[in-house]
Here is the input.
Amino acid sequence: MSSSDRFENLTTLNACDILDPLRSYPLLAPYSLALFCENQGVVGTRHGQLTTLCRPPEQGGLCDPSCRSDHENALHQAISTRKPVVFRCRTGILNFFVPFKIPQAAHCCLIGGGVRAEEIDLEAVEEIARESHRSGISLLEELEKLPTCTEEHLEEVARKTSEIIPDLQNKNLYAAAFEKTMMRLGSIIGVSSELDRASSIEQVLNLVGETLMVLFDLAQTAVVLHGEDPSQSAVLHGLGPWLTHPVHLNEEQASVFTQPEESHPFLLEEEEVLQTLPEVTCDQALCLPLKSEGTSYGTLVLFNTDPHPREKLLIELLAGRMAARLHILSREREFDLKNDTSERIIKMISNLSLLDSREALFQRILEMSSDLLHASKGSLMVLDDDGTVLRIEASLGMNPELARGMRVRVGSGISGRVAANGKPLLVNDIEKDERVRTTNRPRFKTKSFISVPLMARGEVIAILNLSDKRDQATFDKKDLELLTTFSPHFSTLIERTETLERASALEELSITDPLTRLYNRRFLEQRMEEEISRCLRQDLTLTLILLDLDNFKNYNDLCGHIAGDKALQRTARILRKSAREMDIVTRYGGEEFCILLPGTSKKEATLVAERIRHAVEKENFPREKSLPLGRLTCSLGVASYPADGNTARSLINAADIAMYRAKSDGRNRTVLFDPTQKNGRISLA
Here is the structure.
């Protein structure tokens, strides 16, 4: 896929999708940034350590009001020439402009500033202060607070930034938008857990309102909830402070927001909203029906917003989770009226929501269900990814090893038929019931059982089976109603847990090297920043060991890439055995590995490095005798914070220099970084 294909929709990105990744570059960290787009003007700003851009006083700046046109000329010069421009205003404030273009979009320009020239022109300052009716001393004091910079240095910053942006467009811009979306998704997953624990409609509304405000900056939102019975009117509840009291709607008003035929989001125009709610001022309202298990509970209404498609999908997900919780609360209220054991059950459900592994959740669901119905035997069978086979994930009254080996095809057997038709099955006598009519198996004491499908999005995901009441009585309709009342809870929790585990697995993949199962370079750089910050706060040391397998290209050419991969895996095992639990072992790239040793001096790390070197030297790698040294060996470089580098990049560079010195000195050795050594990698034949 080409760059233009990948970024053809970037015109819909928010300004922060561009500015946020730029802020992560140390080069740009000190400067205030703004984004200018043709036909739109300045569409976003981000402040670094400084907050001053070249702006006139009426916009909160320190500049001469007359420099606006010069500022704009410099901006358009950058766009027209497609080259970076550095601009110095009369006040002495410096700005840089870096033009770029997003495919199929208008020309854009990154504006950076917040610094001044080294020398202040006192006469100019006095004249500017007089023209703008300000205190010259006050203006001078404000200017003196700004850090100084030369135009030459700023030109270099602008040049390097212009080199960064194409790479950002090709790689990081889409990633930043994706990362932000994933962050929001992660937050919504977390909020879903909170929704699962919400015990009242008020808690649900407060949580959803806060989520919409924090994640999407939506301040004017509401929920229209149906009455609990037809005689009660629908009520509009404002989410947030904009509407302080509920508004009771008549049938005609409610029909505008809760269109029964709609199951997908729909828009209301300004006139429709005004006719229904004269006190609400809005251009349009986005309505998201709150439906769960075929029942409508109301509508989530977002006034004055036209969200980005990916934001809309996330809000729909939140609305779905909200509807599911409203559905559960409704069923719980029904249950409260029928059974005085509801308090105990709600507590059990709450405990279930705290479980974070599928195995524990499945077993607890089965145990909870058996306690409710006083069953002594049971199983929870889960559908495989293909949806064709059921396997037992939790069992009660059955040998676990036997249970794990059992498989049932969908459509075959009792559980298989329940999975196929998606309907619960209550049987009083397995030998007389025409639906099953089969001889009772010896391992069951009674002939009565219940099988209930657990559904998600209309599809069966699991089957819950219970048998053999402890008093040997038969299961009845009340038992079935009780179990089916809480089956949506179970389905929701299973879905949530599986989603969290999938998210955890994806996160693990993103920071792990697939071949060696070690952490990758991305994770190393992230942890180095964290560890260096900790060392700075607590006055600790930190040592880095960089390792490279000697003559590995020759080994690959001689033995083939499969053998080379196995050699890398063996080396990874050696490193794991040699490292402590607190150490970070990573595959840095190719045949290079890196070990980060927190709280370790260079002398202590040297012992670790030598232990690794000897272990690699002694390892029996296939066909290594044909290598120049007669065996596969490694060269190691050691560097420590803060003596050899006070940033992640400088520390890695120091270890790299030491490692390549080890290679130049004959390989198969450990070398400590010496600041007098020549910088840069040493060219080796």
In short: Residues 151-197 form the longest helix (47 residues). The chain is about 45% helix and 20% strand. The chain has a mean pLDDT of 81.
